[in-house]
Amino acid sequence: MESNIKTARPYAIAAFKQAQDEGDSKRWSQMLALIASVAGDAGMKGLIANPRVTRPELASLIIDVCGDELSDTGRNFVKVLAENQRLGISGDIASAFEAERARAERRSDVQVISAYELTAGQQNDINVAMTRRLGTKVDISVAVDQELIGGVIIRCGDMVIDASVRGRLAQLTQTLA
């Protein structure tokens, strides 16, 4: 997976620069997500892996499936991915593009996992605290995992704040061991 991300990053940066030139990063996000969805389909994965299917045929097939959702530069991007045998990592390219976009927009995606459903006030408190800590606009997604017993785990990129009871118990176990 790590090597896919390293391989995907230059393509994501090129797509991001093109999106900036066009002034439409939102459309590029949508196009890359669509390309990743089409290329990630089980049937399409088989075609991508099939050596009998030529690169231009793959590009043409994906472009046809995506239809009018792709701009001219989006279609060219698909051709480049096909020619360089990178259609299989289009999901990683889309993810890396979103990371570049978030960085440029000074926005951070924060995932909050809680043992119980959070109230709007609690979500707002976390949003304010993370905005202050990260110095960026924060987009929060919330999930519930009752195995945490209590508390929350907050993830943003490589940063993890584990304030869960399960995490504290694991820490205590390591201390006592």
List the helices and strands and how they pair.
Elements: H1 2-22, H2 25-40, H3 42-49, H4 55-66, H5 72-83, H6 90-104, E1 107-114, H7 120-134, E2 137-144, E3 151-156, E4 159-164, H8 165-176
Parallel strand pairs: 1-2
Antiparallel strand pairs: 1-3, 3-4
Helix pairs in contact: 1-2, 1-6, 2-6, 4-5
Oligomeric state of this protein: single chain
Structural class: alpha+beta
Q: Portion of residues in helices?
A: 55-70%
What pattern of helices and strands is seen along the backbone?
Answer: HHHHHHEHEEEH
CATH class value of the largest domain? Mainly Alpha
The third-level CATH topology of the largest domain is Peroxidase, domain 1
How many domains make up the 3D coordinates?
A: 2
What low-confidence regions span 5 or more consecutive residues with pLDDT below 50? Answer: none
> How many strands in all?
4
* Strand ordering within the main sheet: 2-1-3-4
Number of helices: 8
Main beta sheet, described?
4 strands, mixed
Q: What does the average pLDDT come to? A: 93
| CATH homologous superfamily title of the largest domain | N-terminal domain of the delta subunit of the F1F0-ATP synthase
The CATH architecture of the largest domain would be Orthogonal Bundle
